[in-house]
Amino acid sequence: MNDLVIGFVGLGDQGGPMARAIAEAGFDLHVWARRPASLEAAAGLAHTAHDGVASLAAVVDVLCLCLRDDGDIRDLLDGQGLTASLRPGSAVLNHGTGDPAENGRIAARLAGAGISYLDAPVSGGRPGALSRSLTTFVGGEPAVFGRCLPLLESFSRKVVHMGSVGSGQSAKLLNNALTMSNLKNAVDAFWLARRLGVDLRKLHDALMVSSGSSAILQALGGPIDAEIAPHLQGLMRKDIEHFAEAMRALDLDPSSLRDRGLAGAEGLVEIVGWLRRPEPAAADDGGAHLAARSMRPSEA
Fold first, then answer.
1. What percentage of residues in the chain have a pLDDT greater than 70?
2. Tens of pLDDT along 110-144?
3. Of these residues, 172, 184, 202, 238, which one is catalytic?
4. pLDDT tens for residues 246-265?
5. Which one of 141, 164, 187 terminates a domain?
6. 60 & 117 share domain
7. Which domain holds residue 89?
8. Which of 1, 4, 53, 169 is most exposed, with the fewest beta carbons within 10 Å of its own?
9. Which residues form the active site (predicted)?
10. Are residues 54 and 132 in the same domain?
11. 158 is catalytic
């Protein structure tokens, strides 16, 4: 049993498996959820469920938050009085993706109450949480990071201390932008492959272990299916705009990555459809190549 008492709020698709990993690693886990149904994520685990977030905050050493956005965190800390309930010397870890500057402001407010803060967004989605293979980007004081490292390692394959508060969020936003830019590369390449009459499934299978592979290309052949693709597409659109807003707030120009990333998100549902129901390769390779040369990309 690890000595740290851990609170967890945000038992969703990703947060639920993360909380399970924490409990299974031997931490004393305490949970709270707005909806009772969310508590099912902790079923079968040794844990303590709380009726209110204030009672949870009063007993934990570290509070993990896996919420939708920074607004949800502000609502908990201020609107629901969470800050007043946390004990001085405790720490709050934010595993959601947010704005680097806003995370700095949250950290400053908590510091005034003697509470430490780490922005610790994770990459890998629900599959990574289930397999305990998330990547966690962390910003905050080194001493607090060191104290929380065993906790972070319970659900992560890689944990990286990026620097001061906000740097974890900066790294995650750049990760998201790169993922969606790589998705656009895949959409463009497979669009051409269809015009060439190439068997898309065979191409994908070969690329998975070739130099052209990427994390998003592997996900397209695995956990991203036709059912989840529209939901992920909406999240990607939100994430790339979030990235762009954060960069502009720092007087940086995100236009190139933003535009390519958004185009990648727009092509997600289509490329998943191609890979799940690929068109048969053209019988006449020469004719397929001729058609490819005569078709403009705008006609796709």
1. 92
2. 999 999 999 999 999 889 999 999 999 999 999 99
3. 172
4. 999 989 999 999 999 999 99
5. 164
6. yes
7. 5-164
8. 1
9. 172
10. yes
11. no
